[in-house]
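User: Run a structure prediction on this.
Assistant: Running it now.
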Amino acid sequence: MEYRIKPALIDQIREARGVSSDEAVAASVGISLGTVSRVRRGFDVKLATAIKLMEAAGVTDIKSAVQAIAEEPTEEPAA
């Protein structure tokens, strides 16, 4: 199953990690820059990636956060 993460989470990670670029976010979280770009454009990510992003942003109740995004209706991102 894949999950849609709000692009603002990338900005929260930037602030939490004290970095200024998406490249630095990707490196600090251990994901590719392409994945960060897909999140910014509204595409879904795998559960493991969603968890990494939420942990990096300082989300403390991962289980509830995953349940909340799983229940949100999703729309296809604009091409």
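The chain has one domain: 2-71.
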